[in-house]
């Protein structure tokens, strides 16, 4: 039975690692996207970092990135910043790819 227990622990470890990485990728994606949005909102330095942290926090509302897109859309609309939903989605996809690249490099 020891072999089965070892195998089970191995699968559990792999699953836990994958979950941790998925969470880290979502958080990094939200941060990068938040920094992009902050620049469009005219924020820089600590204000941009604070805004990006708010975007990361908004991602805890529901699975996926719809909550992030809603938050940034509302902020753009409030400041009358003309950015299409399509451009926001493109930038979010870029942020996701960059987050994966950054975190994969950190793992190696």
């Amino acid at each position: 039975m020891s072999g089965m227990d070892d195998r089970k622990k191995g699968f559990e470890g792999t699953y836990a690692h994958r979950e941790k990485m998925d969470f880290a990728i979502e958080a990094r994606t939200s941060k990068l996207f938040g920094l992009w949005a902050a620049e469009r909102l005219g924020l820089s330095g600590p204000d941009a970092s604070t805004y990006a942290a708010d975007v990361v926090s908004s991602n805890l509302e529901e699975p996926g990135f719809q909550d992030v897109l809603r938050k940034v859309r509302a902020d753009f609309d409030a400041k009358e910043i003309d950015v299409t939903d399509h451009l926001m989605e493109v930038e979010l996809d870029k942020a996701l790819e960059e987050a994966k690249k950054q975190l994969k490099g950190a793992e190696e």
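The chain has a mean pLDDT of 88. The chain is about 80% helix and 0% strand.
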